[in-house]
Design a protein that fits this description.
Shape: rod-shaped
Largest sheet: 5 strands, mixed
Structural class: alpha+beta
Number of helices: 9
Radius of gyration: 39 Å
CATH superfamily of the largest domain: Histidine kinase-like ATPase, C-terminal domain
Strand content: 15-25%
Bound molecules: adenosine-5'-triphosphate, magnesium ion
Order of helices and strands: HHEEHHEEHHEHEEHEEHEE
Oligomer: single chain
CATH class of the largest domain: Alpha Beta
Number of strands: 11
CATH topology of the largest domain: Heat Shock Protein 90
Helix content: 40-55%
């Protein structure tokens, strides 16, 4: 099993556990909610009974004391309305909104609209229970769920939300730590490689110059080939040194940069691969040519592998004026990439080739995103038909100086 398959399995496994824990927590709390609901129902029924009795025996002093004690201990929010629907008495409501000090004429803690709002909420939750009132008309007692019951209902969702937030933060923190670790390895390796290659390449150049003069072989094709190869090594070293430090971006015509590279690349590829560049041949972008060439090279090599060295590869350059962006679409007529792998192909180590390292696209993405502030992704792909990769770069707009 490759590391990506393993990682995916782990993700599924963790997701499965998260769902099990979440469901268990919801079911468990639901059990409590149901139990409390039953208890509150019983206590409301008791309240109604006592109230009914108190209305019948309201002139019995001793009985009134008992009733008062029972009522005070009922935490349920309750409102009683008379035969005209006017609020007659209440219980268990917020004391900071219901206290009206008659003597001090203090209205600070008295909010009449609050009662109406509470009554409205109660009517929405439970139908009122009718009783015979003092004047013989039908009065109603309303109640709503207690504060604790309401909180308990939302509790599992709040709990799950907090857990999810925690996991998300942990995930982001860990992946960014891992990414910066990867960054360090990339940059370190690249610097070291460039450094190590530097000395032998300089010596090789000197040797070639020496050979030319010693054997008087200025035009010898063999030596010319050697020089070409040394130049190639220099390009490679240059790329590595640029990856290892912050590269300078310069304003270039995208079309020209790509066609120059393809001229060079065509010579090293099978004749059966046909390259085409289409689209806007004027649009400019900020580029670092050696690094951008590396991007195109990786995409073209992958495309050539995908078409098995026979078919066509098209590069289309489009300017998106409104967004001030340049789209570079690299399309091949190769084997295609399954949709589920559109993102995976960019991960280091993912390869389907026998002799591949799976580093090409991850390096390509680094160059585009980290060094050019651009984007790269699989725009579309169909198995057996072909693939299009899209690079997006910021277009560089050149302002014409205006004379006044
Ligand atoms: N144009 C394409 N068409 C189909 N599959 C592709 C294409 N480009 C990339 N892939 C898939 O993505 C994988 C990863 O590509 P990547 O360039 O990162 O690594 P590689 O080509 O396998 O190895 P190397 O490190 O030598 O580049 C490839 O093995 C291939 O399966
Ligand atoms: Mg590759």
């Amino acid at each position: 099993m490759n590391p990506y398959e393993k990682k995916r399995r782990w993700k599924f496994f963790l997701l499965f556990f998260a769902i099990v824990i979440g469901t268990a927590s919801v079911i468990y709390t639901d059990f409590f909610v149901k139990k409390m609901e039953r208890e509150e129902k019983v206590s409301f029924q008791l309240y109604v009974k006592v109230t009914e009795q108190s209305l019948v025996m309201y002139d019995d002093e001793r009985f009134n004391d008992v009733i008062e004690t029972i009522m005070k201990n009922t935490k349920l929010p309750v409102i009683m309305t008379d035969g005209y629907g006017v609020i007659n008495s209440y219980q268990g409501l917020d004391s900071t909104k219901t206290n009206y000090d008659v003597e001090k004429q203090d209205k600070k803690t008295y909010d009449p609209a609050y009662f109406e709002r509470e009554l409205h909420k109660m009517k929405e939750q439970h139908p009122g229970t009718p009783i015979i009132g003092l004047d013989g008309t039908i009065w109603h007692i309303y109640h709503k769920d207690s504060f604790i019951l309401t909180q308990l209902r939302y509790f599992p969702f709040i709990q799950l939300g907090v857990i999810a937030l925690f996991l998300l933060t942990a995930y982001v923190a860990f992946s960014s730590a891992r990414r910066s670790e990867q960054d360090q390895v990339w940059v370190g390796m690249a610097k070291e490689t460039a450094h190590q290659l530097g000395t032998p390449i300089s010596s090789l150049m000197a040797w070639v110059e020496l050979m030319k003069s010693r054997f008087d072989a200025e035009d010898d094709p063999l030596i010319a080939e050697m020089e070409n190869d040394i130049k190639r090594l220099e390009v490679i070293t240059d790329r590595f040194s640029k990856i290892g430090s912050k590269p300078v971006l310069e304003d270039h015509v995208v079309y020209t940069v790509i066609s120059n590279f393809i001229q060079y690349f065509q010579l090293r590829t099978s004749d059966k691969v046909i390259f085409k560049i289409t689209g806007d041949d004027q649009v400019r972008a900020l580029l670092n040519v050696p690094l951008f060439d590396w991007v195109i090279e990786n995409l073209l090599k992958n495309a050539a592998n995908a078409i098995e060295n026979e078919g066509s590869i098209t590069i289309n350059i489009i300017e998106h004026l409104a967004k001030e962006e340049v789209f570079i679409d690299v399309t091949d007529s190769g084997k295609g990439i399954p949709r589920s792998k559109f993102d995976t192909v960019f991960q280091p180590g993912y390869t389907t080739r026998k002799r591949g390292w799976g580093l090409g696209l991850s390096l390509t993405r680094r160059i585009v995103e980290n060094y050019h502030s651009g984007q790269i992704y699989v725009k579309e792909s169909e198995l057996g038909k072909g693939t299009t990769f899209r690079i997006i770069l910021k277009s560089s707009i050149t302002y014409e100086p205006t004379s006044t």
